[in-house]
Amino acid sequence: MEIQQNIKIAVDAIVFGYNDNTLNVLLIKQKFGALKNQWALVGGFVHDQETLHDAVNRELKEESGIKVNYLEQLYTFGDDIDRDPRFRVVSVAYFALVNSTKFTLKADTDAEDAQWFPINNLPPVAFDHAQIITLAYQRLQSKLTYKPIGFDLLPREFLFSELENLYCTILEKDIDRRNFRKKVLSFGIIEETDKFGNKKSGRPAKLYKFNRSKYNQFIKDGFHFQIKLDKKKK
Amino acid sequence: MEIQQNIKIAVDAIVFGYNDNTLNVLLIKQKFGALKNQWALVGGFVHDQETLHDAVNRELKEESGIKVNYLEQLYTFGDDIDRDPRFRVVSVAYFALVNSTKFTLKADTDAEDAQWFPINNLPPVAFDHAQIITLAYQRLQSKLTYKPIGFDLLPREFLFSELENLYCTILEKDIDRRNFRKKVLSFGIIEETDKFGNKKSGRPAKLYKFNRSKYNQFIKDGFHFQIKLDKKKK
DNA sequence: ACAAAAGTGTTAATCTTACACCCATGT
DNA sequence: ACATGGGTGTAAGATTAACACTTTTGT
Q1: At B176, is the secondary structure helix, strand, or coil?
Q2: What is the pLDDT at residue B33?
Q3: Cα B16 from chain centroid?
Q4: CA of B176 to C1' of C1 (A)
Q5: Which residues of chain A neighbour B143 with C-beta distances below 8 Å?
Q6: What percent of chain A has pLDDT over 90?
Q7: Non-local CB neighbours of B99 within 8 Å, separated by 6+ positions
Q8: What is the predicted pLDDT for the residue at B157?
């Protein structure tokens, strides 16, 4: 039995990075093809003998040189038949987090340029990529409240104030520092190091790190990670 | 620029129904093709000029004659290159809820047979469909606690005890009837009718119905739907 | 009168919120 | 000494959890 079908499968990756109190999205400008000189998400067609995950990782490597901390499938876009003007493409979008301080972007094989853009100040992007980014941002916001994925946007060792700011920034909320600290520490999933941050002013602050195995135990014991920030940002 | 790719796109639907305190999954047995005489999820290949949603709805119609109350994309399965032994297939799985008391299944065009199976007593199913069903069940369990999708498994007018049982059954938890009722009513999203159920024994019970526009208002006002059942089932 | 399911309130415990002052460092 | 950000506790209010008896109907 032969199936006639003329639809291509692509993957796209929405990569978030966090730096200087700003949430950024990684965009690339391609050298070749239909996307020449347009900003777009990292992505491309899936090879016949390659899993979807492998395809995303390959594109991330080829187009940005980045190694992500977190990667999950976001959504498959296939309800707009003409999203790509060339032919029909169904795109499986992935959602990735990276500690962006660690990386210098190197536009590799296929990309002329790769750059971070603040989520609140994106350039025009190709196809329906703006819509994909919006969905990814919503997922990030909601997932941040019930999974400890914020740590994947921070360096391995971080200041409490960085974690606070990350939550404030991404959730667009104010925060009560005391309550936030109490709540986070109550989970017992982050621990002090004996090192201190090197901020220029103010009292030196301890560096903390996320303990993933304690988190796994916490979950196995039937507890729930949950961080709600209730006040609205001015 | 021509893209060489030899991957087919399919959709599959996991349809849940609820009846007699049992959560059921809809499976079909196909007349033709590789799946002949095996139980499988409703599904098939996407046509070139058809959205993914249209494809699911078409397959649901062709293979079961069911009209669902709720439909959302679940996950795209494309990491097992050999999940279909014939050729590579990437399948976009959808998750659907139906008030199964309303329907008599009619195996239509493509299906020899269509039947409900209790989630805890499934027959062997084709391909990786067992895995897909497991994922869908997890999604149902978690979504039930934060979205009012339980109503999509019940008749339009239902007894409070039916709603209670639905939550107990699907979440595999015990329940405190008083606390559950208080919590659900506190949201103000369901309302009494002046009708009564027709159980054979016991005191007659009022029928209730879900008011979707009140729910939308509730959400717009910034409230959160949340139902947790804490005690474990014996 | 009994069996079966429906309906209903109170209290203790827990969790959440609001709130402000002192501390350690660099300049 | 002052500016900067770090670190900390308590009390009021809200939410959740535990718990059992009365009501209405059919038989």
Answers
A1: coil
A2: 74
A3: 3
A4: 29
A5: none
A6: 77
A7: B17, B18, B69, B152, B153, B154, B155, B156
A8: 96
Q: What count of residues does chain B have?
A: 234
Report the alpha-carbon distance of residue B206 to residue B179 in Å, rounded: 18
**Alpha carbons A130 and A183: distance in angstroms, whole number:** 34
Rounded Cα distance, B52 and B73, in Å: 9
Q: Is A229 in contact with A171 (CB distance < 8 Å)? A: yes
Query: What structural domains does chain B harbor?
Result: 8-146 (3.90.79.10), 154-220 (1.10.10.10)
Contact present, B164 and B110 (Cβ < 8 Å): no
Q: Is the dihedral of CA A42, A43, A49, A51 positive or negative?
A: positive
Task: State residue A110's pLDDT score.
Answer: 62
Asked if B225 has any chain A CB less than 8 Å from its own CB, the reply is: no
In this predicted structure, the answer to whether residue A102 has a pLDDT above a threshold of 80 is no
Measured to protein CB atoms, the chain C nucleotides within 7 Å are 3-10, 16-20, 23-27
Query: What is the average per-residue pLDDT within B78-84?
Result: 94
**What is the C-alpha to C-alpha distance for residues B22 and B180, in angstroms, rounded to an integer?**
20
Q: CA A224 to CA B231: how far, in whole Å?
A: 15
**What does pTM read for this prediction?**
0.94
Q: From the CA atom positions of chain A, what is the Rg in Å?
A: 20
> pLDDT per residue over B125-145, tens digit each?
999 999 999 999 999 999 999
Mean pLDDT lowest for which of A69-73, A109-113, A190-194, B135-139? Answer: A109-113
Cβ separation B73–A75 shorter than 8 A: yes
| 8 Å CB contact between B61 and B107 | no
- pLDDT one-digit tens code per residue, A45-66: 999 999 999 999 999 998 888 9
**pLDDT surpassing 70 at residue A107:** no
Q: Is the CB of A160 under 7 A from strand D?
A: yes
Q: Which of A11, A129, A60 is nearest to B90 (CA)?
A: A11
Q: How far is CA A8 from CA A36, A86, A111, B57, in A?
A: 20, 11, 21, 21
C-alpha closest to that of B211 among B227, B189, B193: B189
Burial of A116 (0-12, 13-18, 19+ CB in 10 A): buried
A24/A74 Cα distance (integer angstroms): 18
State the DSSP string of A174-185.
---HHHHHHHHH
Q: Do A48 and B78 touch (CB under 8 A)?
A: no
Query: Residue B100 — pLDDT band, cuts 50, 70, 90?
Result: confident
Residue A89 in contact with residue A7, Cβ under 8 Å? yes
Q: Which of A4, A7, A49 to mutate to test the interface with B (most CBs of B within 10 A)?
A: A7
